[in-house]
User: Fold this.
Amino acid sequence: MASKTAGTTKGRLPGKLIHHQLNRILASKTFSQVDRLKRFVTFIVEEAIARRGGELKEYVIGVQVFGKEPSFDPRTDPIVRVQARRLRARLEKYYSEEGQADEVIVDIPKGGYAPLFKSRETTPPRTSLSTTLVSTNTVTVMPFADLSGDHSMASFGRGLRDEIIHTLTRLKTLRVSSGSDRGDRIDAAIIIDGSIRTLGDRLRVTVQMIDGVSACYLWSESVDGAIAEMLRAQESIAKLIVERLQPEIDGPGEYSGGGRTSENLAARNLYVQGRYHLNQRTEGSLQKAVEFFERAIIEDTRFSLAHSGLADAYSLLGHYGVLGPADVLGKAAASAASAVMLDSHSAEAHTTQAHVRVTQDWDWFSAEREFLRAIQLNVRYATAHHWYATSCLVPMGRIKEALDQMLLAQSLDPVSSIIAKDVALIYCYQRDFEAALDQCDHTIELNPHFAPAYLTLGLIQEQRRDFEESAAAFRRAVDLSPNTPRNHAALARTRALSGNISAARQGLKMLGTLAKSRYVSPFEFVMIYFALGDTDRAHRFLSKAREDRCWDLLALNVDPRFEALKDDSRFMATIRKIGLG
Assistant:
């Protein structure tokens, strides 16, 4: 295809046209969740338009785009080079898919950072399917199918839809739209659909409520009435839909799981504070979560949600290596059992119970039934989808299903840092490291002080053999959460892999000293000893990790860090003992 480059004065493209193309790129799906790359491409394009392309050096970009300190040294920190490679790959993907018909091509030649702008003849775009994560407060009311024998109920169906829309618009938290009858694709959180039948002077209206993300039926009901009282039938059906819809639009807030709340205001407030601290995922915040949930239970001993939250807090204290198994396993199991006993219809309680069964008992199939029960009780409870993916589907090797559940969880709770981070981890398990990096960027943009995001970023960069970047990410995790052993262990491991054996052994010594005063998960030693090639010690600690029911073992069969051990008979024996072989 013929093209011309804006590299000479005669062939230079107008700045307005280039700006228009930049906006198309920034608004594209390809760049939708890569804010750092958006800043990068915006900066270099605007500098080039201003005739300052020759000044686009690594130091300038590092300081202006990535917020580096004036002491930034590109020789020791390769962030600009790494992000430039990702930007080139992202632009190539954009122009091969969404941007096939674009008139202007933005190109960044290797060896520099000044972009070139090319024009080309428009070519027909390739049709592609896209997935939209819809808002949780959008409802579309579809036309009701007229299934009467003589098709005489069309006007009643239109009136019924109008009445439903009119009634729903009274709910201020909703955005309501009407769907077409052409079978167009619908982007809505909840879809209202139905049909009308007649028999003599009677009519039957069947109404369905469908989850727009998963396409699962949330509710279906038939309403019978006399044709002579059609207006009253329309009003009663609209009222019924609002009553059924109300619990679905509460979103991921206080009591999104449908569990019974407490009449005790103090207990409710303590519970909400406990959930807030639980979601921070730091050692201090998890311990605070326990305190708040215990105080909520003192206020109301029959508050199921507080028992569920307490079980979750104890489980996470174990998973994050804050406390040893003797301190958490029994307490988590007892609190989970209490939560289900107090409210058997609570999605939170069944999610907690499932999580305990899978992490303590390694009972994958029983846990899956509990997770599915929780989702059936409330399909919009994000944590049910999240933990179903990470603690059940991932261990069983069902990574594609796990990713679907994680993306659904993220659509339901788009501001959750831990969910966003775990989406990146699932991409890593898929060996899609570019998608994992993009998701890490999104997570860090969402919460720049979230240490687990940098830990995951380091794991991904380690798999890409970019040890300078992985070490930088782990150091950032250590800075944000210096008391977390797994951050120090990850840094020691990547130093071992990069050949800095003395630094790795120094990290091992530090963890050994720390283990004398607090619990340190055996899994941290496993990772370092395998990286050092000391497989005997690694296997001894792996056996101890199995005894402690360490959380990290759940991903043993899919974690790329263990790919090279699939021919190790002792390693495969451990997988079989966990029930994953």
In short: The longest strand covers residues 190-199.
